[in-house]
Amino acid sequence: MVFLLESNIVSRKPVRIIQLETKTYEKRVEEIVIENQFPANANFKLSMTQQQQTPPSGAESATTGMAGSGSSATASGVLPSSRGGSRRQTVRGPAAASQAANSTTSFGMGSDIAAFGSKKQFGKTRGEDADSAWCICAQQPFYVPDFGTSGSSGDDAEAGGGLSVPSSGLSGASVAIRKSGSAKVKLEFLPLTPGNYRCQLLFLDENIGEFLYEVHAVASLPASLETLELQCEASTAASGAAGAAAARFRFVRELTIPVKNPLLNRALTVFVERANGHLRTKLKDGLKRCEENHHTSFHVDFNSPYFTANVPELTLTNGSGKPLPASGRSDGSGVDASGPKVPLKANQARLGTPRSVLAGTNSVLIDFQPKGAGRYACKLLLRSRNTVCGSSDLRVYDLIAKVKEPNVKTQLEFVAPARHSIVQEIPLSNPTDTTWSLKAIFSNGNADSAGNAQVGRPPASMFSGPPSLVVPAKRSATYPLTFTPSWIYHETRTFVLLNTATQQQFEFELSGYGEEPLAQDHIGLNCQARSSIVHNFDVFALPGGNGSGDANAAQVFKVESDLRDVVGASTLTVPASAGGSNRVVKYPLTFSPLVSGSYFGSVTFTNEATSEYLWYTVEASVSPPDPETTLEMRAPVRGAVGIEIGLANPLDSETTFAVELRGLGLLGPSTFTLEARQSGVYELVYSPLLVTTGNGEEGAILFSSDAVGQFWYRLNLVAEPAAAQELDDMSCAVGDVCTQPLWLQNPSNQELQLQYRVTNTRNFSIKGSSASNNGNTSVKTPTRVLLPPFGRASVVVEYTPSSLSDFESTSIVFYEKDVASDWEFTIRGRGRAPSVMKPLVVTARVNEAASTLFTFKNPFAGPLRVDVKLVADDLDGNGSPPSPRGASPVFDMLLKKRRVLLESFGLLQVPISFLPRAVSETRAQLVVHGGDDYAELEWTYPLRGVAEAPIHPRVLAVLACQARDAVEKRVECELLAAPEDMVPSDETFSVEWEIDAGRFGPMATPAAIERALTVTPLPVASSSRSTASLPYSIRFEPLRPYRGSVALLVKKNSGGLWRFDVVLDAGDPPVDDVLTIESSLNQTSSVSFQLRNQFRQPAAFLAEFSAGSSSAFTVYPAEGELPPYGSDDGAAFVVSFTPTGYGKMQSGQLVICTEEMQWTFNVKGTYPDATPGSRASGPASSLSLSSSASRARLGITQSSSGSGSNSEQRAERAKGRRSRQ
């Protein structure tokens, strides 16, 4: 039986598998050792096939981070047999193709990496197939340089999956290997797409056999083109709300991508160099067309959730808008063996701040939203998309973002006495989720001495603190910063708390001032005058040493004291010591006071080498010596008794004794002077106000002299009660009141505020008081009586009689508790029969009724029956007859009840109406008749009715002018409702002003406004008009602004009144002076001047800046009193300027006003000249009025200018200013 066997080899098993790995666009050269597999010499023909493998669905390459999809070749990579013309092929079905298409792996945030390495099927036309043969996708990654071949691709359908026979140009593609020998073959691997690749090397000898080497290669993502760094600082917006916190950590940057890919360009250059002749030209042109047509649109991916692209698509174009290839080749030269000629900067990406919300050309907007401060690393992947040939342009950029919180900068100023420490706790709050580790860094500072500082060695730093601080997450902590000045220095230093993780800095500008040291101790001494006491002071070595830097050397101190009557050594030495510390020496100081009292002073020990010092405060209480003798003084209260004390001066020079009086009521000179070797008598007066108890009170008189010492006398003071004083009798009509002044004399040197009590308050009362001191009298309230020292005061005693026969008496006692004993006065009075009483005046407008209420009081202790009648005069006040019969009376009593019975001290109210018909005065009498037992009594009260003209409908005049100017107007006062028979020329008229000063602002008074108005009557011209009028000239001369209305009252002496409204409008006066003050920022400069009143009396003033003035100006004082005109010194005003920010020139208007005068000053604030090369010598200020005579005329004298100046400059004072009384 014969069988015909035909072999069908569907796969080969490689004798060796070689693993390779490289990055996309990077060439890997591997030298492979080929071993002869047969026991004979052989000449093997080399055939090579290669393909990109398809990984299992969902698989991810550990090296690339993505999965590559398979090509159109068989998944098993079968090479055809070298024998047989017909070979079975295994073709991938639709399911396998679908599986390969879905093999994707995420990159970053969901990028579609499956497109990498999947070669798109070309069109079916021959022209399209021919064009795609020269695209990037057609370039094979494996290449055997020794044989100049890339073999065949597993994707080539025409090859049928077999090995192509080498052309005539490749006839040398064979390898001769001896038996049991080996040969080396170089293999180049240059991938243009990431993924897994397989290459099969078939070695065939037709006579001996064949064997297969297989190469597995992995291409990862291309190397990063650049590393771009972002420096981000969180905003300083408040992080209270979640939205605000997120906005603080959001940053947008614009990344500009070059149009060329340098790595792809270098790789393609290698492929072009492999071709020869016309193939090289065709390949170069094909690759150029592929770049221009296929690689312009890119997709953007990130592998970090904190980075996103606002628009993930990017199109690369040149300046004219035409898409350009993304490779690094230039358009003019193409790709040649020398590589790209474009400078490196042309292929670099740029990362910057976007100028608009839209990305620019070849740019993409990156939205970076970190969760907080820290370092964030990310890879940005650009891949070309929607390419016709299926090839890819891949670019990788490394992004490193460093986010930090904004640096916090604070200024801290420390002030502490030398050799004392203060600690400032600096609070720090950590709002993040990470613990902060802060490092404390102190920079080199600058220190300068203030005062007498040591010379020769720089001071140690006055600031200190722990080297680090840990702030837990979501917690707060404090850093203790200590300031310890060693002496009087000013040190500036920068202190930083650095977060080593985020590089965030908390920066502090430190400024420390060492002030004079505090006293080491307060020493209290107690002794008696004319005795001695010794106290030992502790003196220790100071840190400054002896000035040469040796702290252990001996130190010499100079001793000074401002305490009187002390004796001690002028210097003190603290000996040297090896230890350098705790060196204390006792210094004895003797205190021998001559005079008693309290002494305050200090003792200072100054290091002669360094001028450092330590000091003590001393308070000594010195009691008097034993008294010389005891003297008794006895006197009644408010009386006086004197005593003479003899003194002698034993010295050869004049001596003045200071006299101290201890005891109430003692009076005498405070000093007593004796010439050399002279004797004298000191007169002591005892005038008590308060009665003493028992055997009297103890007092003393002390005589003290620095030269003689102190001696004193004990006094026994006895004050006895005084007898009551009788006043004159008082008498007046019952129903009336009479008064008598009562004078009180103060014999003491203290002010008395006397209260009083009256025993008979029914008939006697105190209605007011007035005090007199040096001729000035002032009215006081009746509740207390004020007596100035050694002055007197009067009170008014009012007597209301209630009896016609018996005397009525009372006792009035004045006193001040614990100050003045009872001061008693007795007084009596008796009543007389009534007659004509005080008149009653009623005022009303013409034809307008007015009423008044007359009150009659029963003056007796018993009931009184009265009858009230109204009796009209025969003629009215104008000489006219009474009202005609039937007409309404001018006066009318509305009480219709007759014979009214009043109880004891009862009241009767009688309403009276007044209805005038013309501007005149009407008179009548109100008669009260007594009844029963008092029938002979009659009280007659005259009534005067004054008629006032109706309100004039028009304003009489408007007086408008500027203050310090004058205006004069002639006015006609129309006498409305005057009597028909009145002839103005036969009448006498007077004028006065009715002024409400509250309408005219602060400090305005009716008297001052009236002094500015002058009314002059003009001759009355004969007129035939029915209404009479009076001409006047009104002159208005204001010295300050007045705006308001006043009333001019025209009074007829025979009775009647006309009221006219006058409007005053006095504007602001001209500016008196211009003050220019120069000051630096946050510094105060001042200018001062003096001001006197314009009249020969002092005047109260108010000073303020007007509305709209800068708040940087202040004036002191704001109120006070101006001296009279002609005084040597005026009131000093200090105007200060403290600018708090730069900008336009500050200005304001200072207004100083009294009741009659106003001064106005324009104030300007300037800054020092900042011109380069100039240096201001200090704050400057000036007054710029036109002349000193103008200032003197206004009472202005420049006192000083500058900041804190005490200059005594005075401007020349002018004389001869008119005084207005």
TrEMBL record:
Entry-linked Pfam families: Ig_CFAP47 (PF26579)
Composition-biased stretches (Low complexity): 57-77, 95-104, 1172-1207
Superkingdom of source: Eukaryota
Disordered: annotated segments: 47-104, 318-339, 1170-1221
Domain CFAP47-like immunoglobulin-like, chain residue ranges per copy: 947-1066
A cellular-component GO term for this protein: cilium
Biased amino acid composition, Polar residues: 47-56
Residue runs in coiled coils: none
GO aspect biological process, one term: cilium assembly
Protein name: CFAP47-like immunoglobulin-like domain-containing protein
